[in-house]
Amino acid sequence: MSTLSSFKQFTATLSEEESLMPVLFVGHGSPMNGIEDNEFSKRWAQMALEIPVPKAVLVISAHWLTRGTHITGMDFPQTIHDFGGFPQALFDVQYPAPGDPLLAKETASIIHTTAVGLSHDWGLDHGAWTIIKHMYPAADIPVLQLSIDYTKPPQYHYDLAKELYALRKKGVLVVGSGNMVHNLRMVSWQHIDKPGFGFDWALKMNDTFKELISNGSHDKLIKYESLGREALLAIPTPDHYLPLMYTLGLQGGRDKISFFNDTAVAGALTMTSVKISHT
């Protein structure tokens, strides 16, 4: 039986409320988190035990920026090592999770905002595999990626995410992967290995983001540039912030919000992550 067929069988036996999957935004930070046994990777592994086992995972990563929107459509996506200057052990990692071409086509078909291309050239970049390999180390759950159209504003991505809501009813775990506060130009290298240190502006903005997320103030989060100087420091470019728009766009009226890995790193990044779950 295909994965997509199993989705249909699965949802036929459960009510919508029982089968509604959580949604995550995960601060992925350094690629080294993919091989380190640290507070962040341990929490990712624990999260997998706290939520229902998904039928598939769809990741929207800060590291797949395209013109137009694309989804991985191959049977076996490659493990992409899209970084440099790290130990060989990181480049040696392979995460051989299968893809799901049928689910890719199904997902493309429910998006009406734009035409979605099926990609056979991408795979799983470090915004995806560094997290998912800790959550599902057996690599036995299909993993797909949806690209971010870098030519579009935050509102576009938030609205597009709403079209993916049906995936939550089909046992698909949707994960936005980026960082709320992500300014590599202002990183404090002397604190790079000492999680917990954050510049005042980074901590203030992180608190603001959490407050707005908790209050459901999505309009203000979409229009982040109006949140002041700290917001522009936290988001010098939108790539790591836009995955949050997908997570928030999938929030339903009865969902509850919780935060995890709420830690600053190297002064100018935060690992703060969000779980949206049905009550």
CATH class identity: Alpha Beta
Helix count equals: 12
Shape: globular
How many domain units?
Answer: 1
Query: What's the overall average pLDDT, rounded?
Result: 93
CATH topology: Protocatechuate 4,5-dioxygenase, Chain B
Strand content: 15-25%
The helix content, as a percent range, equals 25-40%
Would you report the number of β strands? 14
List the strand order in the largest sheet: 8-2-10-1-14-11
The H-level CATH homologous superfamily, spelled out, is LigB-like
Unreliable residue runs: 1-17
Distance between the termini: 31 Å
Largest beta-sheet details: 6 strands, mixed
Family: Belongs to the DODA-type extradiol aromatic ring-opening dioxygenase family.
Protein name: 4,5-DOPA dioxygenase extradiol
EC number: 1.13.11.29
Domain Extradiol ring-cleavage dioxygenase class III enzyme subunit B: 37-254
Main attributes?
14 strands, 19% strand, stizolobate synthase activity, 279 residues, Extradiol_dOase_DODA, EC 1.13.11.29, zinc ion binding, globular, alpha/beta, oxidoreductase, Protocatechuate 4,5-dioxygenase, Chain B, single chain
Describe this structure in words.
It is a single chain. It is built from 12 helices and 14 strands. The strands form 5 sheets. A 6-stranded mixed sheet has the order 8-2-10-1-14-11, with helices on both faces. Helices cover 35% and strands 19% of the residues. It has a single domain (21-278), classed as Protocatechuate 4,5-dioxygenase, Chain B (3-Layer(aba) Sandwich). By secondary structure, the protein is an alpha/beta fold. Belongs to the DODA-type extradiol aromatic ring-opening dioxygenase family.
